[in-house]
Design goal:
mainly alpha, 2 domains, single chain, 5 helices, two-stranded antiparallel ribbon
Length: 200
C-alpha cells in the first residue's frame, strides 16, 4: 500500500504593508513676535513699547486673540504671529461704501428705532467699525453681496439661506439696510461735508 503524502503547511499570505506616510512639514517659530517690529526679539524693546502705546490695536480676527494658528501647520497665528493683536485700521466711516455702512451698523449696538437721526446713525457706524475692524466689515459685506446676488439671480437655495441665517439675523440685517437706505444721502453729507463756501 503506497505511503500517504506528507502534509505541507501552506505558506502564510503576505501581509499588505501600507506605503510610508510623509509627515507634513511644520513651520514652527520658537516664540511669538512683537506686534510692532515683527521680530521674536525686539532690537529696541523700549522703542517698541513706546510705539505700541502710541498706536491703536484690536484683537486679531484670525486667531480671535489666542495667538495660535488653527491650520496645524504653524504654532503661531499667520496673521499676528502670536502677538494676539493687530493694528487697528485707520479707515474712517466716511471711507466705507454704502453696503459697508450696513454691515457696520449691523455690527454696532443698534437697537430698533423708528427714525434715528443722522448723527446717531453715524456714531453707530463708527461703533460697529470699531467693534469688528475694517476687515470684519469688509468680510461681512462680501458675504452680504454674495447672498444678494443669489437672491437677484433666483438661485438662493435652502442651503444658501441656511448659510446666511447661520451668519446673520435676517430681521436685524433688514432693519440696518432700511435705515442706511433712507439716510444714505444725509450720511454722505455728514461724513464728507462740502468745503466752506461750496454749495452741497
Amino acid at each position: 500500500m503506497p505511503a500517504s503524502p506528507a502534509l505541507v503547511r501552506p505558506a502564510p499570505a503576505p501581509i499588505a504593508v501600507p506605503p510610508a506616510l510623509v509627515a507634513p512639514v511644520r513651520l514652527v517659530r520658537s516664540s511669538a513676535v512683537c506686534p510692532v517690529c515683527g521680530n521674536s526679539r525686539c532690537i529696541d524693546p523700549a522703542a517698541c513699547n513706546a510705539e505700541y502705546e502710541a498706536r491703536e490695536w484690536a484683537t486679531c480676527p484670525d486667531c480671535e486673540g489666542t495667538g495660535f494658528d488653527s491650520t496645524e501647520f504653524q504654532i503661531w497665528c499667520s496673521l499676528c504671529g502670536g502677538a494676539k493683536v493687530v493694528e487697528l485700521d485707520a479707515v474712517t466711516p466716511g471711507e466705507l461704501s454704502d453696503v459697508e455702512w450696513i454691515a457696520a451698523l449691523y455690527a454696532s449696538d443698534y437697537v430698533t428705532k423708528a427714525r434715528p437721526q443722522v448723527d446717531e446713525i453715524a456714531d453707530l457706524i463708527a461703533q460697529g467699525l470699531a467693534h469688528v475692524g475694517h476687515e470684519g466689515v469688509a468680510e461681512m459685506t462680501r458675504e452680504l453681496i454674495a447672498f444678494w446676488d443669489h437672491c437677484e439671480a433666483d438661485t438662493a437655495t435652502r442651503e444658501v439661506w441656511a448659510q446666511y441665517t447661520a451668519r446673520f439675523d435676517n430681521i436685524r440685517m433688514m432693519q440696518a439696510s432700511y435705515v442706511i437706505e433712507r439716510a444714505v444721502t444725509a450720511l454722505h453729507r455728514h461724513f464728507n461735508p462740502a468745503p466752506a463756501g461750496v454749495a452741497a
